[in-house]
Amino acid sequence: MFKLFTFFAFILLSIQVHADDETSLRLLIWKNYFPGELIEAFESEYNVNIEQVFYETDELKDEILINTNGGEGLDVVIGSRVSFEEYAKQGWLMKYKPGAIPNIANIDQHWLPKGNLADYSLPYLWGTIGIAYRTDKVGRPFNSWSDLFQPTENMKQRVMMINDSRETIGLALKSLGYSVNSNDNKELQAAEQLLKAQRPYVLSYSYTKLDKTASLARGNIWAAMVYNGDGI
Questions:
Q1: Which domains does the chain have, with CATH numbers?
Q2: What tens digit of pLDDT does each residue of 110-124 get?
């Protein structure tokens, strides 16, 4: 199981450039993170229009921020802790004022970011990555990440992997017994070879759909790397 921590932070350039625009709020965010009813209720209560700019991978999020000079035109970005550490170093994030966010008092101290991120971001949620698989297809239990990264011969073109290099490489490392955050060249090369060997078994690097058209439901995919919310 691989834990994920999702944070939100304020984009510095946008706050400076658009400080007089109090009628709109632009979020850089994954799809399906906020229910539509919540967005509507917020807009109604605070008389503001929320525009959501969606991304599908951390790489695409980084590309959007780079192409907008560190987020110019955006107000809030939601993403992983790892990427935020780099954003803070680049000077893309604005320090928040604790007094302006009273609900911080409702967050357990255990979840609040430490170190460089303490003044720039707040936790929104946390989750895990796991394996969803068709018991009627694979014919055996999946007990470790090795079952996904080193599948049996009958699973060619039956595997789906998340389209995110950080998470895919991290879990390839974990399946080999290494840290998901390893910077060791030999360990990274071993993960690279593992992913190359797995490639013939992978039908797609993408994300599972959340309806009856999902590849897992239709039987095209027998095992998939998924976020816990999607798997449930």
A1: 2-126 (3.40.190.10), 134-231 (3.40.190.10)
A2: 888 887 778 888 888
